[in-house]
Amino acid sequence: MSLLAQFKPQFASLWHSSISEVLSVVSAVGIGGIVSILITGPISDHFGRRASAVIGHLLWAIYYIGLLYAPNFAVAYIIGILGGIANSS
After folding, report:
1. How does DSSP classify residue 64?
2. Taking a C-beta distance cutoff of 8 angstroms, is the pair 39, 86 a contact?
3. Contact yes or no for 76/25 (Cβ under 8 A)
4. 19, 1 in Cβ contact below 8 A?
5. How would you write the pLDDT of the chain (89 residues) with one tens digit per residue?
6. Residue 35 class from Cβ within 10 Å (0-12 exposed, 13-18 middle, 19+ buried)?
7. What is the DSSP letter of 72?
8. Backbone phi, then psi, for 69, in 5-degree steps?
9. Total-model pTM
10. Domain ranges (residues) in the chain
11. CA nearest 73: which of 29, 31, 13, 7?
């Protein structure tokens, strides 16, 4: 999340959007964290902590790579939600 905050103008030009939309992606990370509370508990209970940790690491990779290659704000927003889920898992 600190990457988004530090490089707001660069991400805005990368996604062909405004700085306020980049800040919306930052808030999407928080939304993903709230949403993940409903998802990660049952996954961890059913499959175990190891599977939950592996899913979290994969989502982190998708988050970091996806931010760089997102073609627009909408895709970046969805990737931000995945980053929030990764942060909470």
Report:
1. H
2. no
3. yes
4. no
5. 678 889 999 999 999 999 999 999 999 999 998 988 888 888 888 888 888 889 889 999 999 999 999 999 999 999 999 999 998 87
6. middle
7. S
8. -110, 10
9. 0.87
10. 8-88
11. 13
**Cα-Cα-Cα-Cα dihedral sign, residues 31, 34, 39, 40:** positive
Provide the token pair at 30: 């928080």
Amino acid making up residue 52: S
Task: Write out the DSSP string of 30-58.
Answer: HHHHHHHHHHHHHHHHHH-HHHHHHHHHH
DSSP state of 15: T
Closest by CA to 89, choosing from 78, 48, 66, 67, is 48
Tokens representing 87 are 């942060």
CA-based torsion, 24, 75, 1, 6: positive or negative: negative
